[in-house]
Amino acid sequence: MQSTNPGSLTFHLVYKTGAAQPRARGFVADAERLTPIRTASQDVYLSLRTFQSSYFDVITSIREAYRVLRPGGVFLVSVANAFIGDGDAIVPGLVIPHTSIVDRDRPFELAEKIRRQLTILRFEDVGIHSGPTEIYAFARRTV
Q1: Running DSSP on this structure, what letter comes out for residue 37?
Q2: What angle do CA 7, 50, 81 make, to 5 degrees?
Q3: Greatest CA separation found in the chain?
Q4: Does residue 10 have a pLDDT over 60?
Q5: pLDDT tens, residue by residue, 50-93
Q6: Among candidates 139, 143, 134, 13, which has minimal Cα distance to 65?
Q7: H or E stretch including 83?
């Protein structure tokens, strides 16, 4: 297992998964630069609640996911569709970066952007599944 930040929740989840699945190999890396990972070497690309970040390039990240996935490999990304607000209330949507405005359409627009890029890169079985607090974009790399 490889990670860049031993204090992060992701770091601990990667190691916990490794303990449960000793043959699995997990990586934690910048989405746009998966340089520690060899081309066409991974069966699964998984990124949870990171693609809504305004700090990285979604299209570059999907291209990197394509690069590291083996033919037939699975791509799965979640986008937050809500967050916990005042009084532990679930607030649908996402905050527009650098504002306090909640946009209910932003998660769906982002999921559609991901879906379009997966299609452009000729992933197969491309789809989106929406739940009350998450939207999942999934696909399989062309064989």
Answers
A1: S
A2: 125
A3: 48
A4: no
A5: 878 767 799 999 999 999 999 999 999 999 998 888 899 888 99
A6: 139
A7: strand 82-84
